[in-house]
TrEMBL record:
<feature type="binding site">
    <location>
        <position position="343"/>
    </location>
    <ligand>
        <name>heme b</name>
    </ligand>
</feature>
<keyword id="KW-0349">Heme</keyword>
<keyword id="KW-0479">Metal-binding</keyword>
<dbReference type="InterPro" id="IPR001128">
    <property type="entry name" value="Cyt_P450"/>
</dbReference>
<keyword id="KW-0408">Iron</keyword>
<dbReference type="Pfam" id="PF00067">
    <property type="entry name" value="p450"/>
</dbReference>
<keyword id="KW-0560">Oxidoreductase</keyword>
<protein>
    <submittedName>
        <fullName>Cytochrome P450 hydroxylase</fullName>
    </submittedName>
</protein>
<comment type="similarity">
    <text>Belongs to the cytochrome P450 family.</text>
</comment>
<dbReference type="GO" id="GO:0020037">
    <property type="term" value="F:heme binding"/>
</dbReference>
<feature type="binding site">
    <location>
        <position position="345"/>
    </location>
    <ligand>
        <name>heme b</name>
    </ligand>
</feature>
<dbReference type="InterPro" id="IPR002397">
    <property type="entry name" value="Cyt_P450_B"/>
</dbReference>
<dbReference type="GO" id="GO:0004497">
    <property type="term" value="F:monooxygenase activity"/>
</dbReference>
<dbReference type="GO" id="GO:0005506">
    <property type="term" value="F:iron ion binding"/>
</dbReference>
<feature type="binding site">
    <location>
        <position position="98"/>
    </location>
    <ligand>
        <name>heme b</name>
    </ligand>
</feature>
<keyword id="KW-0503">Monooxygenase</keyword>
<feature type="binding site">
    <location>
        <position position="94"/>
    </location>
    <ligand>
        <name>heme b</name>
    </ligand>
</feature>
Length: 396
């Protein structure tokens, strides 16, 4: 077996897995990596094994467990906050929490938001084009689109979206534990006040639905309400923003694939699915075994950590032919970009629709869109479990 490499690693190219992981692709389904604190954990690179293990409730997502593997030193600061989120619970608690939220995230509800998402995208592009012929796409478009959408979905005032963008950036990009703690306190304080307001002045949104449910059934309690709102906000807009910017960069670096989309806009939904597989921005789902779990001729022992590198799982060549190439004609729907099993992303229906509208409209309205700087000089996020562009200068 190859000597355990460190996890996580920087990507040398923003849309390809780290080169240090390349030897591990041949050790499917399991190999080993070393975390920042010297702990060795299992590294699942096989697609079939990953889906089986992500759906196996013998693996826990409870990050407050002493044996839970923390992928980065910064993760220490997130232990307390993640315990209040959907990702921080196992069944039966997780099932109860998810049941309270599912009605707000159905495909039907996501589809009903198409007109509003289209209006948001068009307004932002109107402003960007008027100020053109160049822009920094992350700040002008990629981040504001999901920020405004999630604010509308949750039922928070439109004028507060800049506050949410700032706090989410601090949570997901700030290296200092103090910054992470301050961001959570700011968000929790804000949502605590907003929930009180909605008890006497209700509106339309997920938070309003949950407040009404609390009044009728006694659940969720106040702490759960605040925690739900916080995790939905963060998960709902920073990750989608990363996909918009990184997908745009990737398309501009693959002109033949870009030309196919411009020639046939009907390919956009398939392209979104393939880009989700190809980019795998949430590149490092983490679990810990609650009991021994056999995998082929190997055994994950109770208390051992397990990491799921989605960028490798989604490029398993036993499932995807020529996995390192973009192909709009392939069936990519079995990817694990949104996870798998009981913790699969609750907002994936909304995310797909946002990506379809944002990317499709961007390509239609800016047929001359191109990078405004050499591709190798455009900064992207350093190695962590969430990938994305720091800036994306474009012109048209």
């Amino acid at each position: 077996m190859t000597e355990a490499v460190a996890f996580p690693q920087n990507r040398s190219c923003p849309y390809h897995p780290p080169t240090a992981y390349e030897p591990l692709r041949e050790e499917r389904p399991l190999s080993r990596v070393t975390l920042w604190n010297g702990r060795q954990v299992w590294f699942v690179t096989g697609h079939q094994a990953a889906r089986a293990l992500l759906g196996d409730q013998r693996l826990s997502t409870d990050s407050t467990r002493e044996d839970f593997p923390l992928p980065t030193e910064r993760s220490e600061s997130l232990r307390r906050q993640r315990r209040g989120a959907l990702l921080g619970w196992d069944d039966p608690e997780h099932n109860e929490q998810r049941r309270m939220l599912i009605p707000s995230f159905t495909l039907r509800r996501a589809e009903s938001m198409r007109p509003r998402i289209q209006a948001i995208v068009d307004r932002l592009l109107d402003d960007m084009i008027a100020a053109g012929p160049s822009a920094e796409l992350v700040g002008a478009f990629a981040l504001p689109v999901p920020s405004m959408v999630i604010c509308e979905l949750l039922g928070v005032p439109y004028g507060d979206h800049e506050f949410f963008e700032e706090q989410s950036r601090r949570l997901l990009r700030g290296p200092a534990a103090e910054d992470i703690e301050k961001a959570f306190r700011s968000l929790e304080g804000y949502f605590g006040e907003l929930i009180e307001t909605k008890r006497t002045d209700p509106g339309e949104g997920v938070i309003d639905d949950l407040v009404a449910r609390q009044r009728e059934e006694g659940r969720p309690d106040d702490d759960e309400l605040v925690q739900f709102a916080t995790v939905l906000l963060v998960a709902g807009h920073e990750t989608t923003a990363n996909m918009i910017s990184l997908a745009t960069y990737t398309l501009l670096e693959h002109p033949a694939r870009l030309a196919e989309l411009r020639a046939d806009p009907g390919l956009v939904p398939a392209a979104v699915e393939e880009l989700l597989r190809f980019l795998s921005i949430a590149d490092g789902l983490v679990r810990v075994a609650r009991e021994d779990v056999p995998v082929g001729d190997q055994v994950i022992r109770a208390g051992e950590g397990v990491v799921f590198p989605t960028s490798l799982i989604n490029r398993d060549d036993s499932v995807y032919e020529h996995p390192d190439t973009l192909d709009w004609s392939r069936s990519a729907r079995h990817h694990v970009a949104f996870g798998f099993g009981i913790h699969q992303c609750l907002g994936q229906n909304l995310a797909r629709i946002e990506l379809e509208i944002a990317l499709g409209t961007l390509l239609r309205r800016l047929p001359g869109l191109r990078l405004a700087a050499p591709a190798d000089r455009i900064p992207f996020k350093p190695g962590d479990t969430i990938q994305g562009m720091l800036e994306l200068p474009v012109t048209w």
